[in-house]
Amino acid sequence: MNTNKFRHGNILSLKLSNFQTYEYQEFKFGPGLNLIAGPNGSGKSSIANSLAFIFNGTPKTIGKSRNIKDYVKFGSDSAVIECVVCKKSPLKIKRDEVKSLKIEENENINLKRKIGFKNGKPISEFFINGALISNKEYFKFVSILNIDCNNLTNFLPQEKVSEFVKLNSRELFTEVSNFLTSKKDDLSLIEDLYTLQNEIELLNVTINTETKKIERIDDNLDVLAKEMEKELQFENNLRAIKLLNYKEKLIESEKLKYKLSSVEVSLKDVKQKLKEEEKKIVELESKVKEYESRPELANYKKVIEELSRQNDRIFENCSRMNELLKKLQITYNERERIESENRRIKEDNETANIRKRKEEKILAELKSDLKNKITSILKKSQDPNIFINENNQLSLPEEAFCKDQSKFDLVFNDLENDKFNIENIEAILPKKEFIEAKRQAIQEKNDKFQSKSKTLQTKIEQLTRTKNNYNSAKAQRMELLYKFHPDTYKAVEYLRKNDIGVEYLEPSFLHIEIANEFKDELESLLSFIQLTTFLFKNSSDMHKFSKVLKDQMKLKINLSVADFSEIHIPKPDKRELELLGIEGVAFDYLIADTPYKNYYTTTGMFNYIPVSKNKIDDQIVIKTLKNVKRMIFNKLFIEIKGNRYNNEIISKSVGIKPRDLFSYSVDVSKIDKQLSILDRERKINLSEAESLLNEKNNIEEAIKIHNNNFGIHNITSILHSIVRVEQSIKEIRLKQLIYYDKNEILNIKNKIKSEYKILNSVLAKNKIPKINIDKVRDIELNYNNNKRDLSFKKNAVIEIKKQYEDRKKYEKEYKTKVKEVTDFLERIEEKEKDYNEKVKSLQIKSVTGRQLHVDPILCFKEEVLDLPEDEIDIRAKINSLTCANKVLNPRGTIKGDFISRETEYEKIKFDIETMRKKRDGKIKKFESDKLKIYENLNNNLKIVSQRFQGFLRMFGFDGLLELNFGQEDEDKNDNDENDFNSGKFLMNIFVKFRANDALRKLSASRQSGGEKSLTTVLFLLALHDNNTPFKLVDEINQGMDSNNEKRVFEVLKTMSETSQFFIITPKLLHDFSYPENCLVTILYGGENMKVLEKYVSSK
């Protein structure tokens, strides 16, 4: 390829393998204007995307899918993009930027990128002139070529054309800033300026934060100062409590000392008294010993002892005599009781003998009666004629009678021996089983006849009732209700016969009528739930009703509350219905009382269901009539529904079939025929029943005869009586008389006499000695008095010793308490010195000038003198101060916190001043640098603005580019205390497309699509400089009219003489004179073959 006309960095060719729509394709490009044309879907954008990928681009650059898999042709694992770039001048490559890359002097640059997947992850490989290099080195090499596909002025894909006009002023400046700087260092100056701006803003934020922090500390110091005052007050209160405790203990000490002295005096008195009492005890003990040595008193004691022994022997003898006398009395009593009991036994035995004779007589009579009855039964058992009935028929068969004479003889022999064997007797009696079996068979037949009669009677009654009911419309409705819903029928029948105290209406099925004109239409709208529902005025009546019929009777019925009063029923306007050709609504053709109409209006919206015999367009009705959701036209039921995804209305129609809800016809002649058949069956059954009744009567007569003549129960009852009487005779027993010893009383009397003799002998033998009783009594009295006094004195000494020990104990306790109180007072006096030092330490001098209010420290002794003297007043004062301290409750670290906070306050205040000075210096530098950069940028922008304005004026329009430094409207906020301008460089595009309009800022919403496209392409062309190797715009002419499109191509035609352009367009201009350096690439294939001739003729 001849590359003489190509400039450095121009693209010579492009090869695609398995990239998007291309399996393999190679493209050649020209040095000027390259038009890539083709219909939609032909792969135009794939070429733009491949150029983006080969020159440092990413899916984000393209603006389409972010998944790199979507750029690999379906069915392939990888795609390859290869591009040849023209090299006309040496590359300024540093050694550390692209290692081991050797490019010959006259050699073009071959760039290659391979994209694909490995283990589910996207991968890319990069090649320069066939050498595999890292992506970092590759992208650095592309930047050396001055190509940046991420800049919209260099590469503007189709998906980002609309995004270009959406850029705000700051984003627009960012995109084109490299075109407004003469050197790359100018961009770094802008970055440095923004960095300096961020530092200033950071300092402002820090200053504001620290200022707020110092304000919080200041508030905290105020709180701490108050807390310090609380702590000082707390300490003063503690000190006052200690002083009060000191005064309380001082008073207690004085009281204890007084009590101690009293105890010591009392102890001396008790000790003296104890000595005196001990001396008296010695005197009394000598007197007692003296009396004990007197002989009169010794003899007196001997006499007393002898008398005591005699008294003991007499007492023992008397005790034995008393015991014998008691025993004698008991024996007399027992003998009297036994004799009385024996007399009663004799009387009972006499009564038992009389009763036994009577029972034996009754037993003989019973046996005689039993023999007579058995003999009579035996004779009757041999006479069958006894069972002949009124018709001279034997009601008992021959085999029922006993023919064995030996059995009769056996029973007669038993009777003669007074034996009564029931089994032998029953063996010769006529067998009742034959009668019972026959009666059971007749009873079974009778039950069948009874059941059959009842069934026939029920059928006849039902058919008769049905026949009678067919003569009235209401009865027919009831029959239909019974057919459709038996439980509702049962409820109506019950309620018509019973009053449950509830106001209700029967189901509408029994009471509504429908106009014949729309009978089928309205019946299609009625549901059985509506038709069978009971209506109520209020819910309380409904609950009572439900309790009786649903809960108690277990009927499955429907209940509802309805409005029984006359209310206004809204309906569509009659004139609108007439204009639409509709006869009316369903409500008009429902014939019923007001509550029923209200119910169907509420539950079925009958007032908004148009009905007509005509064929009417439902869509017109929907648009004309509001609230209409259902309608019936020309025997079609139409229901209207909304689409869940949009506002579209969907109507569904279904044909109406006749339901005949209220019609019920029956052939009465069939019922009459059935009644005739049933009547004949009933008469036959009655005749058979009468015959059966005669047989039953004969059997009953035979049973009666058998019971009267052969009833074994008569014999059994007499036998039971005989057994009972025999048992009663056996139970009669005679009692034995009680035995007793008649000599026991005599023995006891002899023992008493013996004891009496012993007592007399004891009294006769013993002699009592003689003494001078008066003298002895005086001696004894004195002796006892002295002895008693001695005992009293000893007890008194013991009590005095106890008092002495108690007082010694009190003395010891009081001395201990006095010592404790004294020690306590001394400790308080020592601590008072430490407290004074502590309070002085709390009275610090505030660095921030705060005044801490504290009470002055007084002299300890002076304060104690001023305290109350009464213990109650002292205790009340202590309690008051304790409660006050509980309220104060200070922390123990207040002083340290206060000093720490004041130190922190001073440090932060110093740091703020330092930061403010530093910030002011940076602001000064920022303003100076900003002015220099702004002047440089504005000068360059004026050139671009003039070029942009010239392009627009070629089209009869006007425009302007403006550079500012500030904030976007949406980013503006309140300035800080220094009113620092924290904005950015902003660039705005102003355009005017009408003669009478003013210049207006370009925005996504203000201008039309064609105006935005024209402004975008002209602005990009105005930015053009020779430093950019090429520019690519994808379908920029969309939305332009043919005139503007032609003018844009004229501009491109002129500019392509100095730069390479790639314009992707879906169409070519027919009347445009394409330049010689213009290369048109037409894409087509498959179905697009037909458009080939149009593209060729356009060229």
From TrEMBL:
Residues 260-369, 432-476, 793-845 form a coiled coil. Keywords: Coiled coil. The keyword Coiled coil applies. It comes from the Eukaryota. One of its GO terms (molecular function) is single-stranded DNA binding. Residues 13-221 form the Rad50/SbcC-type AAA domain. One of its GO terms (biological process) is double-strand break repair via homologous recombination. Signal peptide: none annotated. InterPro entries: P-loop_NTPase, Rad50/SbcC_AAA. One of its GO terms (cellular component) is nucleus. Belongs to the SMC family. SMC5 subfamily. This is Structural maintenance of chromosomes protein 5. It comes from Hepatospora eriocheir.
